[in-house]
């Protein structure tokens, strides 16, 4: 068996869905802060991690592959950031089986599968899980234009809080970060300008805003923060 890349006491982080967008920046910032990092995505595009794992983490085998890679290369796992979570509009009346399955699988099942695989390592490290919600999960509300996404992220909140309560006695912390409108490749300039006008802070967010919240929640400064839902949206929908 190959020797691990590093046997030092450096904290190790796995960030799913991180070959672009918010996840990519989270990995870069974690690296700057001294973490050994594992990035992930399904396509051939490589992420910025010390190690990159190509895997569909919404499948049991993909989640297993991503966590096993962290274990084999670094021998431990201190932080799991569950970044995968597709968004697309699904009006209630037009919801079909594909949209239902796709949104719940991408946003919810991927997180559950990765947590399930990573728990043994995270328990050993008394580690941290951070799930990624949306600007809509702080309270239970309807969303007639994007019902699938809303359902999935709301259920993810329940999952996050349940896991936090279950694992707190073992020293784990599980929290959720809720991005508001964050500037990624997915939005045009026009969309960003329109979105900014709706945000009380009058600006959209940068992926670095999310990375800062992740770093804080992962740090010992947040040692007593557990089961929390942290909005990072400039006051949007609070
Ligand atoms: N951007 C926003 O304004 C915003 C607002 C609220 C919430 N969020 C949430 O924040 C998170 C990140 O958003 P984002 O805008 O950065 O997303 P994104 O740009 O669409 O990035 C998604 C990333 O996930 C990867 N991915 C997708 N499905 C995967 C799977 N099954 N297994 C492994 N990797 C997968 C993609 O790479 P491949 O294509 O190579 O797989 C890509 O790297 C999501 O949970 C999203 O719901 C974003």
Q: What do we call the CATH homologous superfamily?
A: NAD(P)-binding Rossmann-like Domain
Per DSSP, what share of the residues sits in E-state strands of 2 or more residues? 5-15%
Order of helices and strands: EHEEHEHEHEHHE
- Count the helices. How many? 6
Structural class: alpha/beta
How would you sum up the global shape?
Answer: globular
Reported for the largest beta sheet, the result is:
7 strands, parallel
What is the average per-residue confidence, as pLDDT, rounded to a whole number?
95
Helix content: 40-55%
Task: Give the SSE layout.
Blueprint: E1 12-16, H1 21-32, E2 36-41, E3 51-54, H2 60-74, E4 79-82, H3 97-125, E5 128-132, H4 147-167, E6 173-179, H5 189-198, H6 207-218, E7 229-232
Parallel strand pairs: 1-2, 1-4, 2-3, 4-5, 5-6, 6-7
Helix pairs in contact: 1-6, 2-3, 3-4
